[in-house]
Amino acid sequence: MEASTKPLRSGMKKNREHPPLTFPPASLGRAPDGQLLVLNQWLPSRFSVLANTVSLYLHAFYAERFGLSVTGWRIVAYLGERAPLCAKDLAELAAMDQVSITRATAQLAKLGYLRRRVDQTDRRRVLLQLSKRGLEVYSEVIPIATRLEQELLRDLTVSETALLDAMLRRIEARAATIPLQEAQAQTAA
């Protein structure tokens, strides 16, 4: 395409005139001729690339040493922070499908990193928590994960880091309004 093509920069200006997203999304018409969606400037893609870069770096460490997948590590991290949880809770926290969570928890149990027990208040639910071995894995990866975060934020001042955190919280709150469950139910049907 020509250099004069206008990229779509959704975050460049505030636009409060659109109603909240629904599923299925209402058609907004077609993009004007020549308008591009430049993925390396599109906020969701930038978040995805950042998350994948961090995940791949950490995965290179914990996959070989502990036999963990990326999903497996995320489950270990969530359970290390706030166990016990059921698979549904983990799926919601990680914004992942429950099938991936179930597969990963089965692998974690096989590796001896996870304990399961029936919830005494709701016998249909199975609560998950880290075993002693799982807690050891968690405690070994924490320093690497926190050091990686420090490296990512190294060029930001303390106030910029606080501002970034505040902005991310606002973006996360807005993302929580996206009708994800309706979209997932539609794709499962």
Would you write up a description of this structure?
Mean pLDDT is 86; it is low at 1-8. Helix content is 57%, strand content 7%. It has a single domain (43-178), classed as Arc Repressor Mutant, subunit A (Orthogonal Bundle). The two termini are 38 Å apart. The protein is mainly α and 189 residues long. Helix 1 (43-66) packs across helix 5 (132-153) and helix 2 (70-82) crosses helix 4 (98-111).
Q: How many domains would you count in the coordinates? A: 1
Per the principal axes of the C-alpha atoms, what is the gross shape?
A: globular
Give the tally of β-strands: 4
- Please summarize the sheet with the most strands: 2 strands, parallel
The name CATH uses for the topology is: Arc Repressor Mutant, subunit A
The top level CATH class name = Mainly Alpha
Question: What would a concise description of this structure say?
Answer:
The chain has seven helices and four strands. It is mainly alpha-helical and 189 residues long. Strands 1-2 form a two-stranded parallel ribbon.
Topology:
Blueprint: E1 7-8, E2 36-37, H1 43-66, H2 70-82, H3 87-94, H4 98-111, E3 114-118, E4 126-130, H5 132-153, H6 158-175, H7 180-188
Parallel strand pairs: 1-2
Antiparallel strand pairs: 3-4
Helix pairs in contact: 1-5, 2-4, 2-5, 3-4
